[in-house]
Amino acid sequence: MAGNRKLLDSLSVTIREGEHVAILGPNGSGKSSFIKTVTREYYPLRDEGQVVFRIRGKDVWRVSDLRSPLGIVSPDLQHTFLREITGREAILSGFFSSIGLFRHRVTPAMVHKTDEILRFLEVDHLGERLMTEMSTGEARRFLIGRALVHDPQTLILDEPTTSLDLHALHTFRATLRKIAASGTGIIMVTHNLHDIIPEISRVILMKDGAFCRDGPKEEILTDERIGELFGVRFRIRKEGGWYYATGY
User: Fold this and answer.
1) Which one of 43, 190, 209, 217 is separated from 37 by 20 to 30 angstroms, measured CA to CA?
2) C-beta separation of 93 from 100 below 8 A
3) pLDDT digits (tens, 9 = 90+) for 93-119
């Protein structure tokens, strides 16, 4: 609840390991609140309901238990990392769920894993640059790297293309497609149709704190359904596996 407004209402969803899913909805629809509920930043009010979150049939209650199965990147996290630490340190901090390194014991295995991630994301040339000196797109790729240190089964991206210019958007899309191809599941939370990479096969529509549609991408991303979701008449165009909204 926020004041007298209910943020989320009777949500139930199952996402399979390794599945690529988009949660699409307008601003204020409850998408980020849903993610914060999954990560235990939000809890239901007493007597208002409960959150049951299962991975491989096991209930998970502690935030620390989420590190291995889930990697999470959000605009809030990026704002937190606007400080004098290098990109390499940002990735290493993922092993400790910290913002930078303090008195943490960094092992050779952690360094090796970080080097692998830097090469995989093609940002090894930026590893010693400060996060405050990077573009938004560059910094976001390092936060993805931070989320990958525990080899998560699923990567959750909350509004991932916010503030990216066209070049950064192109690079970021290529990065996500590479991650999806590697076997890591992608959950894309967005209000932008063009964020949905071709590898995503399932789309869940969200409005007014509830999931209102859920199904194969081709069945969900239609003129009628997307127009109803956003309250604007659209024409949906598909090109090379990507979807775009035109005519508004």
Assistant:
1) 217
2) yes
3) 999 988 888 888 999 999 999 999 999
Quick one: how far is CA 21 from the chain centroid? Answer: 10
35 within 8 A of 72, measured Cβ to Cβ: yes
CA pair distance 77, 233, nearest whole angstrom:
34
Q: What is the pLDDT of residue 18?
A: 87
CB–CB of 222/40 below 8 Å? no
Which is the CATH superfamily of the domain at 1-69+153-248?
A: P-loop containing nucleotide triphosphate hydrolases (3.40.50.300)
Could you tell me the pTM of the whole model? Answer: 0.86
Contact 131, 81 (CB under 8 A): yes
Distance CA(24)–CA(226), nearest Å, equals: 9
Query: Other CB atoms closer than 10 Å to residue 134's CB: what's the count?
Result: 20
